[in-house]
Amino acid sequence: MRKRTIIAIIVAFVLTIGVSALWSAQTDKRDGDPDANTIEDNGSRAGQSVEKKSGNKLGKIFGAPFKAIGHLFHHKDNDKLQRMTAKDAEKFESSPAMRVEDARSDIKEKKVSANATAREHFASGRALLMNGRLNEAISELTTAVSLDPSLTEVHDLLGIAYDRKGLPERAKDEFDKAVHNAPENAQTLNDLGFSLYQNGNYRAAVDRLKRAAKLAPHDERILNNLALAQCRLGKYDDAYKNFARAAGELDGHLNVATMLERAGREDDAIKHYEAALRVQPNSTVALRRVIDLYQRTGRTERAEQARGVLASFANGAVVARSGR
Length: 324
Description:
Layout: H1 2-28, H2 34-41, E1 61-62, H3 65-73, H4 86-93, E2 99-100, H5 118-130, H6 134-147, H7 153-164, H8 168-181, H9 186-198, H10 202-215, H11 220-232, H12 236-247, H13 249-262, H14 266-279, H15 284-296, H16 300-314
Antiparallel strand pairs: 1-2
């Protein structure tokens, strides 16, 4: 019985360490353009029209093993620390296997039959693309367009798939086909523009994204992508205008300040954080960032003043817009 108890404890320990490692490995990984990721962390939408599931969140963990771990430490009646009993060990040993579900579970994938239609292959390919299964997605989408060449939207998704595989030339070929077939499609132009941006073709990216913005002047994702490309060209005034068009003056100043800060232009970043505070004096994001920049640039008196303002809000002032 003692041997069984020891084995159960070892298994519990290994499972705990394994899940911790899985969580760490998944949450630390971050794909995509770092600037686009940064403004998305600020709450702004960017990137291509088909979003991919991050796969970074450990969803639900099912099964009794962790209930057994709980019995190692607490008694159900008095909440006191207890030793693991033989009965607990038996429960642990008979527990079903653990199952982990990640974000991919949100998108249902249906296997298509041998005589499936082009639309069915298209739907399957789109689901696979959103779940990050790029090779399978490309296979399904290629089959779809071979069955029905008039299914022009397939080329846009193929472009995104090749882009994510790190094949920019093949991606551009597919995006060009998509734009040729639907020259007035804003989302296709956005996807091509963002692909060009990610691959360093900033002027071409701005050209495509400007065309997309004319077709969809209120599309937040397109405007933010255009602003990101303009930042890479050093056109921060133009970038601010598009960030502001996307989500208002506050977000416009915060996003362009973040990009300036990342580019090492701290004085210009400070000006935009200060402008953000004029728009919303209780923006904790702007206050924290400007305090750090004041300190780093030797403006200690301003840093102390800003700290006092931030402390006054922390002591009871209502912060608007979810703390921004």
